[in-house]
Amino acid sequence: MERPHFKTRLLDGGIFLAGFDYRGKSANVLNGESVAAWQAVVEEAQANDAVTAVVLVSLKEGIFCAGADLESVHESQRKQDLASIDRLVITVHTLFDTMARSRKPYVAAVEGACLGGGLELALACHARIASTHPKTCFALPEVRLGILPGFGGTLRLPRLVGLPAALELITTGKTIYPRQALRMHLIDGMVASIPSRDRTLEAVQREALVQAAIGKARTLCANLDLPSRLSPGQRFLALPGIRAFVCGYARRQVTKRVRGFYPAPLRAVDAVQRGLRTGVLDGSMRIEKPRLLELMGGSVSADLIGLFLNGETLKRGVKSSSMAPASVGVLGAGLMGGQIARLLAEKDIAVVLRDVSGGVLAKAVGRIHDAQAAQLRKRVILPSEMRHRMMRILPTITLQDMARLPLVIEAVSETLAVKRAVLEEFERIAPPHAVFATNTSSYTVTDIAAQAAHRERCVGLHFFNPVAKLQLVEIVRAPFTSGPALATACAVAKRLGKFPLVVNDGPGFLVNRILSRYLAEAVILAGEGVPIRRIDGIAKTFGMAIDSGRPMGPLELLDLIGLQVAIHVLTSLTVLGPRVERRDELLQTMLPPGRPPLTFWKGREEHPDTVDMIRRYRRLHPQEEGSVSDDAIRQRLFLPMLDEAVRCLSDRIVEHPWQVDFALIHGIGFPAFRGGLLTWGSRRGTPPQFAEQLASLSSRYGTRFEPCPALAGGAWC
């Protein structure tokens, strides 16, 4: 039978096969329509005496269920209509309880991403069988959206996998894969299954995964009253006194990680602890639901869900006809080149990694091997997958090995002459249609391609360090960049799991241009004698990089970037005028001849040599003494960023304010709970008010603080 969003078939032996296929979306989601349709399936299965068990499978490729329909949730938040969310949650709790209490077993055949409400749907089933498909994964990412699992996850997961494991998954939003899920008893079995290209119910029925799920359903029909699979140790940790200790430890870990900026993880711990004292349905209604609705009514959740939807908008912006090439070249095997090559290989793209130095190549391949070995030790991948990944990488010193590649990513040293020379060499061997993407962070694509024979194939593909963790990639479009070149770069970024943000060419592009104001002012403050710890502490108290799990101030960030790279980038951005003041003399003193560069920090302490260097610098450059308040330091760090963001919009580096907010959250760690730089600014004041504050700073500290004319004119762009 076919009904909206579900197709069903009654198989021999009374197995009721249900295929989830949400109409009009690329992913299966749970909303009023799909929940009503699934409710009809469950009611039919319960009423039909011929049905002995139900097997649920997805007819979408690469995804089981993405969870709640966040577009409809965000619309309800925007309208402040929590009543509709309340009604949906009540319906889902009742429906899932019917499934869990049914004497007819429900089995989820999971292939692809099983996330949020999708995992809670699977948890309401009596068993879960997973495919080893590369896209199969499990997560309850709700805390990353400012909420908590609201379809029974805080009640069912601890009962299935034990309290400590459940708290870790729920409070971090961590993603796990089938082998990990099997070890913690989240799933009951794992099957190597080849998905059918024909996603009809008839074709999917023949897959090994679905056949294994059918077999599990038949086994459960014979004995549905299975004992708890929790180990004695897990049951001990769920005892009332021990439970309080475990949850208290989880609260301390959450507070240490998010510093009270995000309420959702702590609410989730509370829901888990209280929920273990009651039944699942009662706890879902009385404990989980009120906390969910409280969080959904707050600005943090609305901002985070909006941020997520903006990321989906970026991904959808990549035309479906644009396919990432099967093989890519990487020019330069240094820190960035090696990381890019590693990620390409992990995403099933063959890589030709070229460097003029065999030693540099060997070190890069060694680092890639070590990264794969670490995943192997954690049992994220099998030895066979590690071998396949390493086999996808061809290290070479011969440029001719890249002659037939459709895309080459340049990641050589940040020297304009070197980049131009590499492009010239590439053009001698490559066909005209091959795309040349530069990973530069300090030069414009226009500068690099100034002497190119085929400028139209040149594009920017700017990754952020560390490549594996930071999801943003700036796709830089020069005036001459062709549509196919841009589409190829976007498709590769999307294939790598990144957010492809298209920006127009210009000094620093978007992220580094705004970041330069922040970093330069931090150095100026240090040169004025403001303690290093105080500068970074104020930035961390503001929330900078809190979402990475490692809060970081601007001077710590300079240490991470590397002093020489930072000097180079800041110097290149002096073309923006006096608002990016050079502090070469101060920073150059941190590059002692014949010795490693100094850093601002040494472990957890201010580097004593740097502190001495700053004192000597101040004696040579006496300045007017005067105390500076914490609020003044915050203004000097963040108002220039706000000013530069408005200038980027005025210069059409990007078109929309949300793109600025999204880029800074995912590119430099601007705190997501503040909604982004421009959203934070709009909540603190109006453009003329910020223009007035910047003008006041300018009168005291210099022309670098002069406000953008658009601010004084009352506009954000």
Strand order of the largest sheet: 13-12-11-14-15-16-17-18
Rounded mean pLDDT is 92
CATH topology of the largest domain: 2-enoyl-CoA Hydratase, Chain A, domain 1
Q: Give the second-level CATH assignment, the architecture of the largest domain.
A: Alpha-Beta Complex
CATH superfamily of the largest domain: 2-enoyl-CoA Hydratase, Chain A, domain 1
Number of helices: 31
Strand fraction equals 5-15%
Terminal residue distance = 54 Å
Low-pLDDT segments, ≥5 res: none
CATH class of the largest domain: Alpha Beta
Number of E-type strands: 20
Q: Regarding quaternary structure, how should these chains be classified?
A: single chain
Radius of gyration: 28 Å
Helix-strand makeup class: alpha/beta
Q: What percentage of residues falls in helices of 4 or more residues?
A: 40-55%
Q: Could you say which overall geometry the principal axes of the C-alpha atoms support?
A: globular
Tally of structural domains: 3
Q: What profile does the largest beta sheet have?
A: 8 strands, mixed
